[in-house]
Amino acid sequence: MDRDVLLLGIAAVLAGLTATLVMLGITQSLFVLVAALPTGAAAYFIWYQASGRMKEDLRARAAAARASPGDDDGRTPGGDSRFAREARRRARMGDGGRAGPAGGRRSAGAGSRARGRGPTGGAAMNANSGMPPGDARRTLGVEAGASQSEVKSAYRDRVKETHPDSGGDEEEFKRVNRAYETLKES
């Protein structure tokens, strides 16, 4: 309590100094008015803290944030940044918010991925994608003996046609990616 009384006294002295500086600034120089601004701001913030209003406002804001998970504009806590959206997506997927292979385990072999999870926590795209090589060749439109450069060229052409940003079908785009991953590994 003694601290609050002391802070209120300091705030009163700063408020008086601010009033004096304002009067001098009006009559003498505008520079003195500029000096009155930070003095007045300091007086206000010291009074705001010493009066207990800052503490009340912070508690009220915290209680309001706990009571409603979203703001009035529909945004969720954590914001709408890419990282917040990814964290919410991973939480819905049930992998504990971890990016990368589940549990940090790696399967045998250098550069291989844990089954079922890719490097960003999504589904891994590898030869175990469930697509037979014959279906993959038909999807990309290549012959059975096609070289890796032919597969890559066909993949690039099909991606341009099927990419959702270019007006293509998202499911077909995913199918093209799975086909390429299957043929790339073989």
State the shape. elongated
Q: pLDDT below 50 for ≥5 consecutive residues: which ranges? A: 99-127
Terminal Cα span:
77 Å
> What composes the largest sheet?
none
Percent helix = 55-70%
Could you tell me the radius of gyration in angstroms? 32 Å
Number of domains: 3
Task: Look at the structure and give the mean pLDDT.
Answer: 76
Question: How many β-strand runs?
Answer: 0
Give an overview in words.
Residues 104-113 have a biased composition (Low complexity). InterPro entries: DnaJ_domain, J_dom_sf. Keywords: Chaperone, Membrane, Transmembrane, Transmembrane helix. Pfam families: DnaJ. There is one protein chain. This protein has three domains: 2-67; 77-103 and 114-124, no CATH class; 133-185, Helix Hairpins (Orthogonal Bundle), CATH 1.10.287. Helix content is 61%, strand content 0%. It is built from seven helices and no strands. Helix 1 packs antiparallel against helix 2 and helix 6 runs antiparallel to helix 7 (170-185). The N and C termini lie far apart (77 Å). Residues 99-127 have low confidence and may be disordered.
